[in-house]
């Protein structure tokens, strides 16, 4: 008889809202499989309060000290975006696997730099794209793969959210140096990653962006048209100026239209399948719903990550799979700031947008995004 596995020992870096509201609850929901053994947070009062609330024994104000003392199996990076690269690289070097909040990095160059700290058989760095992991998306992915829906033809991918001016009072928000970009990188990334996980590789993008209403260096609204290797064409809108908030994905296949509307997470009830008016359409619609209803969540993705760790395999939303949406985002910034259509093949190290979403000149990027009204 095989012995039960000891729980995976996890450490959480950063005790802000995303750690307290999503990551620590996800860890607590899987007792016996994973346990939170340490927290890292420079704010000592916040560190003590969070550790007491969640019963975490290890308390550190510096990442290096925690890695040396605790040797965790898994590090959850919940720090602001500018800290992701160093925290992920240091954790990998210590032998820990990494699960990092979005955006994965501030640039493709940073993402690739982190990958160089991975081993051939692990540890690996993966990224929080929890919308992939609900039963609705998993079921749709299978029906696309088996041909039930026919070819994807047309899509809409909207992240229309509202963030007040007060939201940007946090010193790291709305700045190229510390956030890396606006809603294209920090907000719409979830819905765009879901679309890419369903439709596969993109080939070219044409985008426009502007800073229309918020006092930021980065954009507060972006729109794009994306072409896919499958032949599908998808429109994308990312906004932080939309009072009626919604996250909306619509995919028109040969045999059915599939829609998802939610805000920050979904269950099966948020999906709608509409058949095309022919026999294949009826068959496609009859394949919905899935046998189970698993909401999209950090917990659902964490379970998939733990499965991969236990098997010693690269997890989903890592490596090339985790990089694809960041590559699309770099293409959107290059198109919006430089003009014209950008092909995916033109985003290698020779491109300034490989190294920074602003293309190397943050002041010029901010000026280009500014909306000028009047004649």
TrEMBL record:
Gfo/Idh/MocA-like oxidoreductase N-terminal domain location: 8-117
Pfam families on file: GFO_IDH_MocA, GFO_IDH_MocA_C3
Coiled coil: none
GFO/IDH/MocA-like oxidoreductase domain location: 139-253
Gene3D superfamilies named in the record: Dihydrodipicolinate Reductase, domain 2, NAD(P)-binding Rossmann-like Domain
Xref: InterPro entries: Gfo/Idh/MocA-like_OxRdtase_N, Gfo/Idh/MocA_Oxidoreductase, GFO_IDH_MocA-like_dom, NAD(P)-bd_dom_sf
Protein name: Gfo/Idh/MocA family oxidoreductase
